[in-house]
Specification:
The chain is mostly beta strands and about 80 residues long. The chain is about 0% helix and about 65% strand.
Length: about 80
């Protein structure tokens, strides 16, 4: 099982997830960076959070739990 990569840039900290482990925290933006990303869990303040994202798609909100079933995302932490 791989550990998430954490990077700091001009927008703050971001995590890169490419595994099926459950991740908790507080993120404000999620971006798909694989051809198709599927979520087992995506918990946050969006009432109809998508279960799949195509490559490059970005969703904004407040997210507190992310579990992928396939793909890879960048999750930008809340400032």
């Amino acid at each position: 099982m791989s550990q998430p990569t954490t990077v700091r840039n001009a927008y703050g900290y971001k995590d890169v997830f490419a595994d099926t482990s459950a991740h908790t925290g507080e993120w404000s933006i999620i971006q798909s960076i694989s051809d198709s990303t599927a979520f087992t869990t995506l918990t946050g303040d969006i009432s109809a959070a998508p279960t799949t994202l195509p490559k490059g798609m970005i969703i904004e909100g407040t997210f507190t739990a992310i579990t992928l079933s396939a793909g890879e995302v960048i999750a930008y932490r809340k400032p």
